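hey so i finally got around to running the thing on that chain from the lab meeting. sorry it took forever, my laptop kept dying and i had to restart like 3 times. anyway pasting the input first so we r on the same page abt which one it is
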Amino acid sequence: MLKLEELIPGIGVSGVLPDETVTVVSVQWRGAEALTLVCRDASGEVLEKLLFRDDEKCLSAVPQEQAGAFDGDGRLFRLVAEAHRAPEP
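ok and heres what got predicted. didnt touch it at all, straight out
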């Protein structure tokens, strides 16, 4: 269960849409019991959804993959780069 206060930009959330994970773009509170969630679905479409405290029981955080992570082995990168640079026999 994810609390409404935990909905911050950048996190992945399931339970907003049926069978789909969304990424939070922004949150605007509507009093203490509701908020407007602007999110992006898997296809990249931006959606706006009104969520209430009762919706918390359906929400859960989903870890996001870092597509642009720079944690690869630099030696292997250099080996591949040199192989592409070398002339073919």
